[in-house]
From TrEMBL:
GO terms for biological process: amino sugar biosynthetic process; carbohydrate metabolic process; fructose 6-phosphate metabolic process; protein N-linked glycosylation; UDP-N-acetylglucosamine metabolic process. Keywords: Aminotransferase, Cytoplasm, Glutamine amidotransferase, Repeat, Transferase. This is Glutamine--fructose-6-phosphate aminotransferase [isomerizing]. It comes from the Bacteria. It holds the Pfam family GATase_6. One of its GO terms (cellular component) is cytosol. InterPro entries: GATase_2_dom, GFAT, GFAT_N, GlmS/AgaS_SIS, GlmS/FrlB_SIS, Ntn_hydrolases_N, SIS_dom, SIS_dom_sf. The gene is glmS_2. Residues 285-426, 458-599 form the SIS domain. Homodimer.
Length: 609
């Protein structure tokens, strides 16, 4: 999704801006641009459709430098990807970058056109720069022009604005899209994600909704939505320096799959004892709130939604607590009936997903008991706006297709479910059994990543296919959903997931020799039922790829490829069986030659609706 970088320093900021854009590449984008104010007071604009490398080539052919500049990676919403539609947008002496969507752009465009402003792009963004220009011409300085402009905008925005009229100012604003200020020594920066600035600073101010800030080399002045000057805390961020480094791996996704044994361990660290989930695992506030919980509503998008679906099985089984799970873009637009005592739980890797955040804000008006987020990014909007937060310790995830964030979400959710089950009478020996299993998880995860070569061999059967079906039963059904999502995200093969018992209600009509059927088949109480479902597939000539432990009793034969996985405790099955499915999609994508880390049309952090 779109990314913003801006800088004001005593040195040429061109390379800082480009490095910032490179660090944001993982978010997904289709064009990039930069605007620098040069030493002659001229705005130097360079833009290019395609990758940051294409922009760099343009800059090499036509160099630009300056101490003040803004830069952007664009993910098209209004107007196709093109040089013309990419940011920054310029109006006279003003240049601007924008993340988000301006909903009233059409009426503003008409108004500004009538006043003689000429539009050269199809974007919603361009109205904002003309609006700021018109306000400045009415006598506003840059800060007050941006402030007055934001008062006229409906929708979501993070803005970075510079002007040739004020060479020592960088003005930024946020509402609905994230923006941070990176604090340096006699130089300051802005970005949509702190990751973009980790090469220049580890100190950040997180702007709040409605804030407008004036950034100079000497200082930062933030005004809140009422125009009052406010002091926002400076946070020092640790770690994350090497996130942009693939190390010995070919892709970030591959690196992130193999990091899973370590990050699941990090997510449990300090939260479990030998046989118990520690009382401090979820924090003091949680210990007050959990006994009041009568029901749980989980809300998330994409892969995080699948983690929520898994948690529902655990919650209802172990805690006897009813649980609903819904995608954020749906729940936010329907009338919901909230039972007293319902805990509202969001799950998000980024903590910035627009629909999830909107659903949380709406939930606050709807009488939920409290809100909790399971999130991977400290200080993200969801963390700041939720009453409770349980952090996953996946570290920065760069690959657009989520892998380690998902398995760490499952670990955090398992801790949450056990904690809630404890206050609802979970027997001590059952808790001990679950926690002892969790202790085995990192080692088992290592063993599952060890399936890499076997899965690679299996992947060859998929490379020429156009469709695939994923089946699971019970708690493995969401894992089948996640496996199908991974395959479609990065290899562009159409993949569907079904609970195996639903086969004969429709999908069986699709099964033939060209439809590989992937089966998640751990040795659990539904195994025999699953086996009958698989007979239905074989009877129609469908080719089965079964991920199962030796105890499940499958053998490879013509039409059935069994990928044997290590035996493991049942409570860990969903976490562990995810791994070979991740590897499968990765290897199929390699064979197809697709862009594994930045699949077409997708974004890592979806900060617009
Ligand atoms: C995008 C990403 C997915 C992610 C989803 C939700 O679609 O490409 O990988 O699962 O957003 O993101 P979140 O950050 O809220 O988990």
């Amino acid at each position: 999704m779109c990314g913003i970088v801006g800088a004001l320093a005593q040195r040429n900021v061109n390379e800082i801006l480009l490095e910032g854009l490179r660090r944001l590449e993982y978010r997904g984008y289709d064009s990039a641009g930069v605007c620098l104010l040069d030493s002659d007071g001229q705005l130097q604009l360079r833009k290019s459709e395609g990758k940051v490398a294409d922009l760099e080539a343009r800059l090499a052919a036509s160099p630009a430098s300056g101490r003040l500049g803004i830069a952007h990676t664009r993910w098209a919403t209004h107007g196709a990807p093109s040089d013309r539609n990419s940011h920054p947008h310029v109006s006279g002496d003003f240049a601007l970058v924008h993340n988000g969507i301006i909903e009233n752009h059409q009426s503003l465009r008409e108004e500004l056109k009538a006043r003689g402003y000429q539009f050269i792009s199809d974007t919603d963004t361009e109205v904002v720069v003309h609006l700021i220009h018109s306000l400045a011409d009415e006598g506003h300085d840059l800060l007050s022009a941006v402030t007055a402009a934001t008062e006229r905008l409906d929708g979501a925005y993070a803005l970075g604005v510079i002007s040739a009229r004020e060479p020592n100012n960088l003005v930024c604003a946020r509402s609905g899209s994230p923006l941070v200020i990176g604090v340096g020594i006699e130089e300051n920066f802005i970005a949509s994600d702190p990751m973009a600035l980790r090469q220049v600073t580890d100190r950040f101010i997180f702007l709040e909704e409605g804030d407008v800030a004036e950034v100079t080399a000497a200082g930062i002045a933030v005004r809140d939505r009422n125009g009052e000057e406010v002091s926002r805390p400076v946070h020092k961020l640790d770690g994350g320096h090497d996130a942009a480094d693939k190390g010995r791996y070919r892709h970030y996704m591959q690196k992130e799959i193999f990091e899973q044994p370590a990050v699941v361990a990090a997510t449990m660290a300090g939260r479990i004892g030998n046989e118990t989930v520690l009382p401090e695992a979820l924090g003091a506030r949680a210990n007050e709130i959990l006994p009041e919980v009568k029901q749980v509503q989980i809300v998330a998008c994409g892969t995080s939604y699948h983690a929520g679906l898994v948690a529902r099985y655990w919650l209802e089984d172990w805690a006897g607590i009813p649980c609903s799970v819904e995608v954020a873009s749906e729940i936010r637009y329907r009338k919901t009936a909230v039972r007293p005592g319902t805990l509202f739980v969001t799950i998000s890797q980024s903590g910035e997903t627009a629909d999830t955040l909107a659903a949380l804000r709406q939930a606050k008006e709807l009488g939920y008991l409290a809100s909790m987020t399971i999130c991977n990014v400290p200080n993200s909007s969801l963390v700041r706006e939720s009453e409770l937060s349980l952090m996953t310790e996946a570290g920065p995830e760069i690959g657009v297709a989520s892998t380690k964030a998902f398995t760490t979400q499952l670990v955090a959710l398992q801790l949450f479910c056990i904690a809630l089950a404890k206050v609802n009478g979970l027997p001590k020996d059952r808790e001990a059994e679950l926690v002892r299993s969790l202790h085995q998880l990192p080692e088992l995860m290592e063993a599952f990543t060890g399936l890499d070569k076997t899965v690679q061999d299996t992947s060859e059967a998929f490379a020429e296919k156009h469709h695939a079906l994923f089946l699971g039963r019970g708690v493995e059904y969401p894992i089948a959903l996640e496996g199908a999502l991974k395959l479609k995200e990065i290899s562009y093969i159409h993949a569907e997931a079904y609970p195996a018992g639903e086969l004969k209600h429709g999908p069986l009509a699709l099964v033939d020799a060209d439809m590989p059927v992937v089966v998640v088949a751990p040795n659990d109480e539904l195994l025999e039922k699953l086996k009958s479902n698989l007979q239905e597939v074989r009877a129609r000539g469908g080719e089965l790829f079964v991920f199962a432990s030796p105890k499940a009793g499958f053998t490879s034969e013509p039409g059935i490829t069994v990928v044997e996985v290590p035996d493991a405790p049942e409570s860990l099955h969903p976490i562990l069986y995810t791994v070979p499915l991740q590897l499968l999609s990765y290897h199929v994508a390699l064979l197809k030659g697709t862009d594994v880390d930045q699949p077409r049309n997708l974004a890592k952090s979806v900060t617009v609706e």
